[in-house]
Amino acid sequence: MLSGGLDSTTTLYYVLSKNYSPICLIFDYGQKHKKEIKFAKKIAKNLGLEYYIIKFNLPWKGSSLLDKNQDIPINRKLNSTKIPSTYVPARNVIFLSYAISLAEVMKVKYIFYGANQVDFSGYPDCRKEFILSFQKMANKATVLGNKGVKIEIKAPLLKYTKSEILKLAIKLKVPLELTWSCYRGKKRPCGVCDACRYRKKAFLTLGIKDPLEN
Amino acid sequence: MLSGGLDSTTTLYYVLSKNYSPICLIFDYGQKHKKEIKFAKKIAKNLGLEYYIIKFNLPWKGSSLLDKNQDIPINRKLNSTKIPSTYVPARNVIFLSYAISLAEVMKVKYIFYGANQVDFSGYPDCRKEFILSFQKMANKATVLGNKGVKIEIKAPLLKYTKSEILKLAIKLKVPLELTWSCYRGKKRPCGVCDACRYRKKAFLTLGIKDPLEN
Q: What is the CATH code for B6-213?
């Protein structure tokens, strides 16, 4: 699952470094930063990978990431335990559901999920507990799973801090200039939303410059 | 979740008979029998209920219900344990994922699912085991679930035979002429696909005429 952000792109490069043959799954779900879709497409295309874009929308919104009448929160305390308004209810469940559909049809064994539960905003669907539970459900839901051909959901970055992710990205030669994090999706990263601030902190920690800041 | 078929419509009328206030969730996912969507809309409208239609498609198909190059199987042995080609991988997982998104945003407590594991085609995602596992996952995935405000997935028809469902439908005054079952979605029910045959069997057992056969 490829959003075009730093985490999922690093996950993709990690997958390639392990010699798997990934199929990229990109989601166009009415997010304010739909700009990330272009980034995701470019990453997949540059690598010559097969990709699918799933388009849908959630008419009930319920998130500042979707709702034009709600602002993206800025300058929040990082690693706060309060779930921010950018949380999209069950969005990652929906994403993963499409992934298991693709996995069953294409006989794919692993779903790679760029979730991270260290430098994150407290989203419940980014935690190990959720991932394990989803995996269990997926194997009851599918014909293959019931035959014992298990689907596994892998989240290799789960326990990484954002700067550890960035370090790995650099090691794997991730084209950082092709990754988009900012929730606001304007011409340049806003620098003050959660996504920008975690990213900024990582670049600061490693003492390098974010190519998007040029 | 309302497909416009006999099972989900009966489930809806059951929900109303229990004095709940349902919101209907209808899916437009490229099914060959897209005709059912019109039926579902009409049912919801006639009852004056709030409804949402979620539109998406599965580019990888993987089912004769979606793929124009694959015929809907006909005259299969009923209650065969062989999963038919009409099975859409992870489709019901996707449906339920949207339902938990809506449930979290609207603070809905119950999701009603018209699944049935007696007179059915052996789909793995229509079994109790799957439903319980999905519910567990849903409560780990959502903010409300993690706060202990549990979402419950109810499948009141799970253990009913098709004729018991039809009997209940008649008791609840379900407008049978507004329910559509046939997978082929032509002008009239084909009579030979799984959906038609289970329906036919039920009407035969009760010795009544299907209004769609007129």
A: 3.40.50.620
